[in-house]
Amino acid sequence: MSRSAASFVCQACGARTRQFFGRCSACGGWNTLVEQREAPVDNRRRRPVAAPSEAEAPGRAQRSEPIASVGERPLQRLSSGYGEFDRVLGGGLVPGSLVLLGGDPGIGKSTLLLQSARAMAEQQTVLYVSAEESAQQVKLRWRRLGQEGPAGQERQEPPLSRLQLLAETDLELVLQELEVLRPAVAIIDSIQALHDGELASAPGSVAQVRECAAALARIAKRQDTAVLLVGHVTKEGVLAGPKVLEHLVDAVLTFEGDRFASHRLLRAVKNRFGATHELGVFEMRGQGLAEVGNPSELFLGQDGPCPGTATIVACEGTRPLLVELQALVSPTSYASPRRTATGIAVNRLHQILAVLEKHLGLPLSRFDCYLAVAGGLDVEEPAADLGVATSVVASFRDLTLPAGTVLVGELGLGGQLRAVAQLLGFVRAVVPRGSGLGAVAAALGLQLLEAGSVAEALVAALGVDPAAEG
Ligand SMILES: Nc1ncnc2c1ncn2[C@@H]1O[C@H](COP(=O)(O)OP(=O)(O)OP(=O)(O)O)[C@@H](O)[C@H]1O
Ligand SMILES: [Mg+2]
Predict the structure, then answer these.
(1) Is residue 91 part of a domain?
(2) What CATH number does the domain containing 388 carry?
(3) Residue 1: its pLDDT value, please?
(4) Å from CA of 407 to ligand 1 middle
(5) Which residue has the CA at smallest separation from atom 16 of ligand 1?
(6) Does 106 sit in the ligand 1 pocket, CB within 6 Å?
(7) How many Å is the maximal CA-CA distance in the chain?
């Protein structure tokens, strides 16, 4: 292939230069120049568009077709070998699709994909391209991960594994291997480490990442290979992060978790073949990642009820999770009290504290308030409000909720509880009045405590009136 002319185009004003500058000489924007390869000019496209003559028109091939007559193929899905991974993908990998997996350094992206490659290779050919680690390193990890199967049980070496390994950073060689091998699944670890020799910029730059991903997308669509790309999450502007790729790929998954806790959460940010906001939960062990079948165990405290804790239902995708909230309220020694929240937006805590102060007359502005969600989960569910309010008041009054109580309800600024859509079985539930859950509660053997305001809900949950001097 001949080296085509490269040029740099300002992403803000469109000015072109032959050389890279940190600042665009036309519009003065900083770091806006991006390398672009000039496509050979196609002269046929340049012909002036004229009305077709009578003689010419019948000879022209029509390229569009009625949408009703487009042939349909049933959407096939390849299982990744892990139920949690499949659910986040919307049921499995779709042949010919591009999936981007992003995540912080060291979170376990390579581990997840190598484990999955191992499981998938029992059914079809899988190519694992390691652009970051040597073949030896990948082999060592493969050995370590082989001790356990997907379900966590001891497993023998698969007799006929069709897992092919290629430690290569040159895009051209990777594309050749894809064409020769024609695997059902290809894993590229990582897209930032691949390098297109046609471009002058360094691996990981915006131009390189975009070109490499576009070339992989073309080959994936042509030969129906499902491609999984690993993308690094980096500070914006320093390296090309997965943002550049988000429009190009079919699905964007993020792998996150506290590096010091063992559980990892897999989420879909974008998915052309399924719903987003599904959550997959894994646990990092010595032998690799294991699926967590009942994630509520992770997010519920092990010590049983104590003052200032409350259990809420947080809906993640199609799955409700039980999550424990912990609050600590103590007299402040500052002019303005400290409020911190982990796992919940601090502004929501401020709002709930203001509602409690105004409508129950609790002097919370003289108290520091700390709130934490157990297990490091981020709760966005509005129905968590009642749980937050209850845990704060329970800590303030030093009360313990009866075991087996779950709290559901969104709090309005007037202290009213808003109705919520979903609920799952528990022993005792405090819910907004008029939620229409009576029949459901009866079927689940649930004692339903209905409340119209936060004051009523707190009396129902705690058994005492927190507004009364105690
Ligand atoms: N011998 C081991 N025993 C237990 N856990 C290990 C072992 N080796 C690695 N790990 C775990 O695997 C994690 C690294 O996983 P992995 O290399 O898959 O991450 P990554 O996201 O691909 O990182 P990078 O961004 O550097 O490529 C470590 O943080 C550690 O928790
Ligand atoms: Mg890695």
Answers:
(1) yes
(2) 3.30.230.10
(3) 43
(4) 37
(5) 108
(6) yes
(7) 96
Say how many C-beta atoms besides its own lie within 10 A of residue 279's C-beta.
20
436 in contact with ligand 1, CB cutoff 6 A: no
pLDDT tens digits, residue range 428-458?
Answer: 778 888 776 666 666 555 678 888 888 888 8
Is residue 102 within a helix (H) or strand (E), and if so which, with residue range? Answer: strand 98-103
pTM value? Answer: 0.73
Q: What is the mean pLDDT of residues 190-214?
A: 85
User: 470 in a domain, yes or no?
Assistant: no
Domain finish residue from 293, 316, 340: 293
The DSSP annotation for 325-365 comes to EEEEEEE--SSS--EEEESS-HHHHHHHHHHHHHHH---GG
Question: Measuring CA to CA, which residue among 355, 395, 406 is closest to residue 372?
Answer: 395
* Separation of alpha carbons 430 and 311, rounded Å: 11
What local confidence, expressed as pLDDT, does residue 395 receive?
A: 95
Per-residue pLDDT tens over the stretch 312-354 = 888 776 677 888 999 999 999 988 999 999 989 999 999 999 9
The answer to whether the CB of 103 is under 6 A from ligand 1 is yes
Same domain, 269 and 304: no
Mutate to test the pocket of ligand 1, among 100, 101, 109, 111 (most ligand atoms within 8 A of CB): 111
Distance CA 158, CA 151 (A): 15
**Domain end point (choices 240, 272, 293):** 293
Mapping DSSP to helix (H, G, I), strand (E, B) and coil, where does residue 226 land? strand
Looking at the predicted structure, is the pLDDT value of residue 357 above 80?
Answer: yes
CA 55 to chain centre: 57
CATH number for the domain that contains residue 231: 3.40.50.300
- Same-domain pairing of 307 and 285: no
Distance of CA 317 to the CA centre of its chain: 11
Asked if 232 and 375 sit in the same domain, the reply is no
Structural domains counted in the chain: 3
Cα of 127 vs its chain's centroid, Å = 24
Q: pLDDT per residue over 365-396, tens digit each? A: 999 999 998 877 788 888 899 999 999 999 99
Q: Give the Å distance between the CA of 107 and the centre of ligand 1.
A: 6
Count other Cβ atoms within 10 Å, centred on residue 226.
Answer: 27
